[in-house]
Amino acid sequence: MIYLDNSATTKPCQACIDTMLDLLSNDWGNPSSVHDLGIAAEHRLKQARSQVANALGAEENRVFFTSCGTEADNWAIFGAAERLGKRGKHIVTTAVEHHAVLHPMQKLEAKGFEVTYLQPDETGFVSVDALKAALRPDTILVSVMMVNNETGAVMPIADMIRATRRLSPLALFHTDAVQGFLKVPFKAKTLGADLISISGHKIHASKGVGALYIKPGLPLPAFIQGGGQEGNFRSGTENLPGICGFGAACADTDAAADIAKMTALRDLARKKLADIPGLQLIGRQEAPHIVNLSLPGLRSQGIINCLQSRGIYVSAGSACSKGHRSHVLESMHLAPAVIDGSVRVSFGRDNTEEDVDALHDALLEAIKTLKG
Ligand code: PLP
Predict the structure, then answer these.
(1) Which residues form ligand 1's pocket by a CB distance below 6 Å?
(2) Dihedrals φ, ψ of 175, to 5°?
(3) Which of 40, 200, 211, 359 is the most buried (most CB within 10 A)?
C-alpha cells in the first residue's frame, strides 16, 4: 500500500500505539480520583500536556485537550462570540476555511452576527491586504487557517495578527492550525494568536483527540460544562489513552527533519507529474505535504479508484466534503472541469521517492483506462 492521503489522517506511530496500549492496560485510572491509580493517571495527563505544549511552543498550562480539531474550532469561535458579542457583531474569516470553521460561522450569522468571508486569489492564498480591507473597529473575531487542507496555501498568520491588533484592537485572533502544526514552523508563545486549534490524528496520533491553545490570561468561556476537568475550561473525563498517545506522537516527531523530507517529496512530485499530458497543478502548494492536481475531463472518483486498484490512496479535495464540489476550489474560480478532475496527494514522513514514481506511473495508467 502507498498511502498518500496524510491530510485526511495519518498512520498512528509506534510510540503512540505503545503509549495508548499502556494506558489502556495499566494507567487506566481517572485523573480526578485522589487515590494512587488516579494520581498515576493525573501524572500521565500532565506529561502529555507538557509534550504537546513543547511541540506547540506553548505555555504548558494553556493547552486544553478536546475531542478533535473540529471541537477546538467550535470552542474558539463560539467562545469568542459569547465573550465579545456584546461589544461587536462583526467577524472576519475566509471562504477557504474547513467546515469546522465555516459551519459555526453560519450558525453565528443566524444569531445576528455579520461575517465577512475573505476571498482567495487563484492559488488559494488570502492576503493581508484583503484582511486589512475587512477589519473594522467592531470586529470581535478573526479566524484564518494556517494551512489550507486542499491547496497547501500557507496563510500569512503573523502579519494578519499584527494588522488585526492595529485595526481591530477588540478582536480575538484564532487560527485553525490543524494542517499547520508540525508542518509549518511556529511557536504559540511568539506567534501572537489568542487561540490555536490542533488535532492528533494529523500528526501520527489517534483520532478522537485535539487541543485548543488559549493565550495566557484570556478568559474564554468553557465549552462543555460539568465536572470541571481541564481547569474548568472543558469538562468531561479525559480521553487519557488518546491524550497520552497525542503527547507521545509529539515527542516522537523531529519536525524539522519531517518537513525537509516532505518538502523534497512535494517538489519531486511537482516536477515528475508535470510531464503527464493534460495534468494541471492546482493552488499554492507551499505547505510541505500537499500537492493538488487535476486531470480536466476525468472525474476525481474515477482517478481515485484507478489509483486504489494499484494500491495507491489519495483523496478528492477535502475528505470532509465527500460528494460535494470543493468550496475551496470553487472560491478560486477554477473551471468546473478542473475542480471535478482534482485529486489531493498528501505526503507523510513515511513516504519515499519510489512512492512518487509509483504515483506517476499509476496516473498515466489511469488516464489510459479512463479515456479508453
Ligand atoms: N481543520 C482543518 C484545516 C482540517 O484539515 C481538519 C480535518 O481534516 C479539521 C479542521 C478537523 O479536524 P478533526 O478531524 O480533528 O476534527
Answers:
(1) 68-70, 73, 98, 100, 145, 149, 176, 178-179, 199, 201, 210, 320
(2) -125, 130
(3) 200
